[in-house]
Amino acid sequence: MDAAENHQIESEEFERWTCDRHDPPILLAMVDAAGHLHIKVRNRDWYVTDFTTVTATCPKCGAVHTRKFAGR
Ligand SMILES: [Zn+2]
Fold it and tell me: For residue 2, is it within any domain?
């Protein structure tokens, strides 16, 4: 396979964490089946695997979303 593969997130495998005040909802991050967090902003792509509480601010309305995850 070429180097471009795996650069796209398969949305079926991920839960979308969104700000629901908008239509369509604004995506804050993606959570995979293992509870790992994927955050993609412009050319940055974070993959976070060890955490318990995450706070995200909606880029559109400024609402703060705090979410707890099971720690490892
Ligand atoms: Zn919002």
Answer: no
Give the number of domains in the chain: 1
pTM of this structure: 0.72
Distance from residue 17's CA to the centre of ligand 1 (Å): 11
Which strands sit side by side in the sheet containing 37-41, from one edge to the other? 14-19, 26-32, 37-41, 44-48
CA distance 26 to 20: 7
For residue 1, tell me if it sits in a domain: no
Average pLDDT, the chain: 84
Asked, for residue 4, whether it belongs to a domain, the answer is no
Which residue segment(s) compose the domain that 39 sits in? Answer: 11-68
**Separation of CA 23 and ligand 1 centre (Å):** 10
